[in-house]
Amino acid sequence: MTPQDIASRIVRYGELQPCKTAFIDAHxxxxxxxxxxxxxxxxxxxxxDQHVHISIPHGFNIGAAGQPPRCRNSLHDHHxxxxxxxxxxxxxxxxxxxxxAGEVVLEEGDIFNIPTGIFRGFENIGTDYGMxxxxxxxxDAGGGVMWAPQVIEDAADHGLVLGEDGKLYDTxxxxxxxxxxxxxxLMSDEELAKRPEPTTAEVLPNHxxxxxxxxxxxxxxxxKVIGETGLLKDRxxxxxxxxxxxxxxxxxxxxxxxxxxxxxxGHWRVDWEGGSATLAPGDTMSVPEDLxxxxxxxxxxxxxxYHIVGTEDPAGPSWTGS
Length: 322
Prior knowledge:
The protein is mainly beta. The protein has helices spanning 3-7, 149-157, 189-193, 200-207, 211-217; strands at residues 10-11, 35-40, 52-54, 60-67, 72-78, 82-88, 91-95, 102-106, 111-114, 120-124, 130-137, 145-147, 160-162, 168-170, 208-209, 223-227, 232-233, 238-244, 259-265, 268-272, 275-279, 284-287, 293-297, 304-310. β7 (91-95) and β8 form a beta hairpin. The longest helix is centred in the middle third of the chain and has 9 residues, at 149-157.
């Protein structure tokens, strides 16, 4: 496979195309400056403005959120798994019906595997524009987003209405619900009462992995971060490995399905028969199935890389208290 063939499967950080109207809170003060990116797969955007960089099915989606300081992503849930790692900045994640059940602060390189069934939100609490990368289970990413009722109500006050068809209608653009399409119904009190409210102490041990802990664990061999035998034991429809300079190998290997390489530190050279490419932090590379390849740091200094591959597992169990 030639470098030209692979070029269409590499999304460079500097070439990411943002959508500023992706979700229902796009006009809500405090959330109206965020940018959403759909890198691999259709994503869960509610807007036709969203640009999909790579549409090849992988069994999971890759997306990203970029936000200036103090910009917030509102409380929501997915039908499938959602995991985030911090590419840049400092981020506070919070969860629960009102976002007050628990919270955790993530630094660059940290990863958070969030179970379904829990409303979650996040905000950039750093001093500069920050970026978090998202892995969503399933090719269809669960068919959309479920919003906390107050998010839908606040959005309507600022001109955005979510239809029961899962599409956004913007009254600021003179849009209205089509005939026969009703507004997305709010969750009932009975439905909301069934949702768990885990504390920070309950969530952190089995759902958050810290960058420097993974660096230590990946000194000789790759660290399995998310997977049945992973540091965060889960079967969300994908596996995530963490690789450093010490655990990278020149030997080539392949997978029977597409895999994804996402550097968080350093520059990485990816080699395959017929070509090579160099990836920098923020770049995303989709490696074709059955393509023998290797990935090693191409420069001295700190180097770390996330590797994602889909599995046959259901894409995201609900919170079970572990």
